[in-house]
Structures are given as structure tokens and as C-alpha cells.
Amino acid sequence: MKKIPTGIKSFRKLREENYYFVDKTLMIKDFLERGSEVTLITRPRRFGKTINMSMMSEFFDITKDSKEIFKGTKIMDTPYASELNQYPTIFIFFCGCKRK
């Protein structure tokens, strides 16, 4: 039985550890087709910003091998599948930071 990914922040963990998964990988296609110099992604709390950014980092990061975790996703059925793991990527998130 699949688990519900409550509190999961890593796309890789979500895919490798048998969690329910809603395929939002076409967001990568939209991002590439937009061709903007800067993209601001805003959503209310608990709407998947971190997991979506983790997904994009896994997809683009040249230091990773993400073929297995993207196998069977919608982005792999597009011409953009060739962009997998082709770019230097920096992914910083502040969800663990506490204000004192």
C-alpha cells in the first residue's frame, strides 16, 4: 500500500519510497517553453513549492543521475526529456531555518 507523502520535501524520496505521486512534471515543460530570464514561483503554505523545486533540481542537475526517478512521468514523453541532468544547478531552501 502506498503512503501519503505528508511532510516529504524530496522528490527523489517521494519517487523511491513508494509514496502516492501526482505527476506535475509537465511544469518543467512549461518552465522551459516560457524562456523567462527570471521565474517567481509563489503558492500558499503547504501547496508543494519545495517538492516542485526539488523535482526541478533533480531534473536539471548535471551532478545527478535521475533517469530512474523520472521513468514513467509525463515529461519523459516530451522532447524535453533530452534536458535531463544537463545543467549546473543550485537548489537552496530555507524550510529548516528558525528565527531567534
Q: Your description of this structure?
A:
The chain has 100 residues and is an all-alpha fold. Helices cover 31% and strands 0% of the residues.
In which range does the helix fraction lie?
25-40%
Order of helix and strand elements from N to C terminus: HHHH
Query: Any low-confidence stretches, pLDDT <50, length ≥5?
Result: none
- Main β-sheet: number of strands, strand sense, barrel status? none
Key words describing this protein structure:
single chain; 0% strand; globular; mainly alpha; 31% helix
Quick recap:
The protein has 100 residues and is an all-alpha fold.
Chain-wise SSE layout:
Elements: H1 11-16, H2 26-34, H3 49-60, H4 67-70
